[in-house]
């Protein structure tokens, strides 16, 4: 029976084959879980440009195995499929297509059907704010109230007497504690001492007692008010902090102001708010900015990772590197937009809510010489030192009995109201808040009602009659559940930007309103927003050429001038890693991608070493690749793009110690097998790093830093910690 024998033989081979396969899979699996224990070697010489393969032998062997497998796999696939494939696409809704994350089918190239910007040089995909994936994880949140009691104090401006009155509501007070029959009330002025560092030197003056109501002197800008039981001083019924904007009556001596009417400009900032997250978490506010006169710029692409560099460009036109060079004590300092407005005759203001750890005005070179007429920061710091603060997720959430943002909104509303009242000088104010929006992905949903009320209040203060209002953010979410979704790339890179033009401005400058409307779906960046702010104090510049060229980005321009339809990220000075103008195609996670991930981790370690952060932070190792995608070039109209031998990949990977999630955009030269121009600070960190990076201060390095544990370090880690590199070779 030769046939039966042959069948038996075949069966035997099949068994052996599967047996070997199982062992192989098991070995592979074991290898992988062993990776965490790999003892890594001496950090390689930094001067070499080509990456030495420093992996231990078993890892190299594994990579080779993977590569072999993949190559064999590909060959088979190519043979199998001669006819063109139909991509697997699942329609999520009428607007766009959502990728099924669990589906690992590698040929899947889905072209979006809708774009925010759609030109030859830029195809910025539309991402649905209400996609099913988001709605599944969306958890609206409520704000914690800082106090339940009704306000017993308020201030009111007396138009005739030209001062503020402080008024106490006795009925409310007595309801707070029925046992108390008689109260004494006082206020204490909070001074900011005129020293080098006013923010650290607030002074709380002796109490001034009053009954029912009193006038606040001209020099009072912030006070603490309290009422206590007349018979027992320590029984305090209510204690509160109040800030007032005092305007000097200077209307007589500003008669020689320009003939042209100058618009006031108010910038309202919400930290960490993408246009998508804005739509989904703040529907009431979104409705407000959908009214007549508001223009949205949907093609607004951020240009750096974190808050400071984005705001820096928006408000000074500089980038971080330039700032360090230009703002040395020897030079004239930095050119902040507030100075330009001041020179143009504006009254200027600045407010930020995060007193504890200011997101913006840190003790950094250049940042201390922002000079404005009205600055909330010293006042708020004084109040913060006098009243209790409540922190949440590292942000000062409540100061005294109010949300910290409410001081900013109050300050802004008073600023707007005071100058609308006087109306003889235009104002420029920048009002930034991030304590709530930045604390978690969906915390803004609790803020929506408050923010919409705030806008309504500004409307009542007649702000929208005269002023141009900019509602803007620095970037989208950078960690949290949103970063696990397929649209996270866009979520992070497309901040909110809406601009309001008042009726008189639209009729005086119809060409500017028209251009702004046309720019709705064109690519723009922080540099263009900076130019717009400059343009507003030089409205006679009717063409882009009439505004002085911005050295840091000569191709940027005002948003009140028509942007070119064909505009690339390069024209907008947005770097590759932040650019949202291209589609990407999913790659299989083969040995090549794995190796690329390792190279990126090597570059991160090298950067840490050169910046001397190895003294504080552990060395990273690649734990696993999560995703690899290849960039499509626009010229090829959706086909996978090659720039000569350069391929651009977008990689997501995880590192140990447990656990860093990263995303990097790398230009890979296939011929030389090397990564080109990798700018390490531009690599994104996708999960929170607050807890693991407390041993260092630097914002950029924190992304890559896992501080050393208290326990004893391994020998290899000790070596890494002790290494010192003094020469910085060119990349
Ligand atoms: C406000 O009231 C709620 C319930 O009435 C209570 O749980 C909360 O602690 C109170 N908050 C403050 C700040 O008193
Ligand atoms: C005064 O008020 C405080 C706080 O309510 C209380 O602890 C204290 O016992 C009171 N002292 C007198 C003498 O009643
Ligand atoms: C207002 O005037 C007083 C003196 O009259 C001066 O000390 C103060 O600096 C002025 N404030 C502003 C904001 O101009
Ligand atoms: C615009 O006006 C400013 C002064 O208001 C003047 O210095 C500048 O030369 C003018 N520019 C043009 C292009 O007319
Ligand atoms: C960070 O540390 C705090 C306390 O130190 C802890 O409550 C919190 O859960 C930690 N967060 C993360 C993400 O580990």
UniProtKB/TrEMBL annotation:
Pfam families: DUF229 (PF02995). Keywords: Membrane, Transmembrane, Transmembrane helix. It comes from the Eukaryota. One of its GO terms (cellular component) is extracellular space. Gene3D superfamilies: Alkaline Phosphatase, subunit A (3.40.720.10). The chain crosses the membrane at residues 12-29. This is Uncharacterized protein. It comes from Drosophila mojavensis (Fruit fly).
């Amino acid at each position: 029976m030769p046939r039966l024998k042959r069948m038996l033989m075949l069966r035997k081979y099949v068994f052996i084959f599967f047996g070997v396969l199982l062992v192989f899979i098991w070995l592979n699996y074991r290898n992988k879980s062993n990776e965490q224990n790999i003892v890594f070697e001496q950090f390689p010489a930094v001067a070499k440009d080509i990456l030495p393969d420093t992996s231990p032998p078993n890892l190299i062997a594994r990579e080779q195995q993977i590569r072999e497998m993949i190559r064999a796999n590909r060959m088979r696939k190519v043979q199998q499929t001669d006819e063109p494939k139909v991509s697997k696409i699942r329609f999520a809704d009428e607007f766009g297509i959502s990728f099924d994350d669990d589906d690992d089918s590698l040929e899947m190239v889905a072209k979006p059907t809708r774009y925010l910007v759609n030109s030859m040089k830029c195809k910025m995909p539309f991402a649905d704010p209400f996609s099913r994936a988001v709605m599944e994880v969306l958890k609206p949140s409520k704000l914690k109230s800082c106090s339940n009691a009704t306000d017993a104090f308020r201030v009111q401006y007396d138009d005739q007497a030209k001062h503020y009155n402080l008024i106490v509501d006795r009925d409310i007070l007595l309801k707070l504690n029925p046992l108390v029959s008689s109260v004494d009330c006082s206020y204490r002025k909070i001074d900011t001492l005129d020293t080098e560092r006013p923010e650290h030197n607030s002074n709380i003056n002796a109490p001034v007692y009053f009954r029912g109501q009193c006038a606040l002197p001209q020099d009072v800008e912030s006070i603490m008010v309290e009422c206590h039981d007349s018979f027992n001083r320590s029984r305090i019924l209510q204690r509160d902090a109040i800030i007032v904007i005092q305007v000097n009556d200077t209307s007589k001596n500003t008669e020689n102001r320009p003939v042209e009417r100058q618009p006031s400009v108010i910038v309202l900032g919400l930290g960490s708010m993408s246009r998508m997250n804005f739509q989904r978490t703040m529907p009431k506010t979104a409705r407000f900015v959908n009214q007549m006169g508001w223009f949205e710029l949907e093609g607004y692409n951020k240009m750096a990772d974190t808050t400071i560099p984005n705001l820096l460009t928006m408000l000074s036109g500089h980038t971080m590197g330039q700032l360090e060079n230009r703002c040395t004590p020897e030079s004239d300092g930095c050119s902040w937009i507030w100075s330009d407005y001041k020179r143009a005759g504006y009254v200027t203001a600045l407010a930020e809510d995060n007193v504890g750890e200011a997101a913006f005005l840190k003790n950094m070179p250049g940042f201390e010489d922002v000079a404005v007429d009205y600055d909330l920061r010293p006042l708020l710091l004084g109040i913060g030192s006098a009243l209790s603060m409540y922190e949440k997720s590292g942000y000062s959430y409540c100061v005294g009995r109010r949300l910290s943002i409410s001081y900013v909104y109050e300050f802004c509303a008073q600023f707007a109201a005071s100058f609308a009242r006087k109306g003889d000088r235009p104002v420029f104010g920048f009002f930034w808040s991030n304590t709530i929006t930045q604390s978690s992905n969906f915390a803004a949903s609790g803020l929506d009602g408050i923010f919409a009320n705030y806008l309504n209040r500004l409307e009542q203060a007649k702000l929208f009659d005269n002023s141009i209002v900019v509602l803007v953010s620095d970037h989208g979410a950078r960690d949290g559940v949103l970063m696990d979704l397929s649209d996270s790339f866009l979520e992070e890179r497309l901040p909110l930007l809406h601009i309001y033009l008042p009726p008189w401005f639209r009729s005086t400058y119809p060409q500017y309103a028209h251009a702004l409307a046309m720019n709705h779906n064109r690519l723009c960046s922080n540099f263009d927003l900076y130019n717009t702010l400059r343009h507003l104090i030089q409205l006679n510049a009717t063409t882009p050429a009439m505004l002085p060229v911005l050295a840091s980005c000569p191709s940027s321009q005002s948003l009140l001038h028509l942007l070119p339809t064909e505009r690339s990220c390069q024209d907008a000075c947005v770097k590759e890693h932040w650019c949202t103008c291209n589609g990407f195609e999913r790659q299989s996670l083969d040995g090549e991608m794995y190796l690329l991930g390792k190279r990126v981790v090597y570059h991160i370690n090298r950067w840490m070493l050169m910046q001397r952060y190895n003294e504080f932070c552990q060395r990273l190792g690649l734990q696993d690749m999560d995703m690899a995608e290849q960039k499509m070039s626009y010229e090829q109209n959706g086909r996978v793009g090659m720039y000569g031998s350069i391929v651009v990949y977008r990689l997501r990977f995880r590192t140990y110690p447990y656990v860093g999630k990263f995303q990097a955009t790398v230009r890979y030269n296939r011929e030389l097998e090397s990564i080109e121009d990798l700018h390490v600070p531009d690599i994104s960190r996708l999960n929170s790093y607050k807890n693991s990076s407390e041993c260092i201060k630097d914002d950029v390095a924190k992304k890559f830093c896992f501080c050393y544990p208290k326990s004893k370090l391994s020998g290899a880690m000790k070596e890494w910690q002790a290494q010192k590199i003094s020469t910085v070779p060119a990349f």
